[in-house]
Write a structure and sequence with these properties.
By secondary structure, the chain is of the alpha/beta class. Helix content is 47%, strand content 12%. β2, α6 and β3 form a beta-alpha-beta unit. α8 packs across α9. It starts with a strand and ends with a helix. The mean pLDDT is 96.
Length: 212
């Protein structure tokens, strides 16, 4: 059975890469990295990793201090851009499906994002009443596997599933001992998965079948 659902954000619930890429490109110029090119496709290949890993990928020849400063500028520019955008960028059916799922099982979010990003998604989507817990790298200082365990332990989940879209999501879920549901419409191509969804509302069918 399934007694809880843990969700990824980027590539699973919405696609913020067009907005974020523009913000990060501006931050790169302001930081003096005029040769750095950041596109939505660039970010689709990086989202899901921790901020440190993303900085290393974009600025492989820079110092840790320069990478950290760059990422700080990027996340600040990103937050401002997303704050000022209506962000109608959820995948089809996400809002309605989460509301429906919350009637059956707790719905939570775990991401490798910076502090404030999950809160921004919740605010923009209007799902505050339906998300019961959340954790992220920026708040906890740990990667996705550890944060999945944190959410599971403090909520006493017994049979959770994690819904994500990348190989990193699969690896983290495997490390955390959580069944992985692959969102095939997202950014990545994991090596294996417990179940696959081709549209977000397929999760409702999986939950009903598993719990019948």
């Amino acid at each position: 059975m399934i007694d809880s659902i843990i969700l990824d954000v980027d590539g699973t619930l919405w696609d913020s890469t067009p907005i974020v890429a523009k913000a990060w490109q501006g931050a790169a110029r302001e930081c003096g990295f005029c040769d750095v090119i950041i596109t939505p496709d660039t970010l689709k290949g990086l989202f899901g990793k921790t901020m440190e890993k993303i900085a290393e990928a974009i600025l492989p020849n820079e110092s840790k201090e320069a990478q950290a400063s760059f990422m700080k500028a990027c996340t600040e520019a990103e937050q401002e851009a997303l704050d000022n955008d209506p962000c109608r960028i959820e995948y089809p059916g996400v809002i309605e499906t989460i509301k429906e799922l919350s009637k059956e099982v707790p719905v939570t979010i775990v991401s490798n994002c910076q502090s404030g990003y999950i809160e921004l998604f919740i605010e923009k989507s209007g799902l505050g009443a339906y998300i019961t817990d959340k954790e992220c790298y920026g708040d906890a200082g740990f990667g996705k596997a550890h944060n999945e365990k944190l959410v599971i332990d403090r909520n006493h989940f017994k049979f959770p599933v994690y819904v994500g879209d990348t190989e990193g999501d699969r690896e983290a879920s495997e490390e955390a001992g959580v069944r992985f549901i692959y969102a095939s419409y997202g950014f990545g191509s994991p090596k294996s998965f417990y179940k696959r969804i081709d549209k977000f509302n397929d999760i409702i069918t999986i939950v009903k079948e598993e719990n019948s």
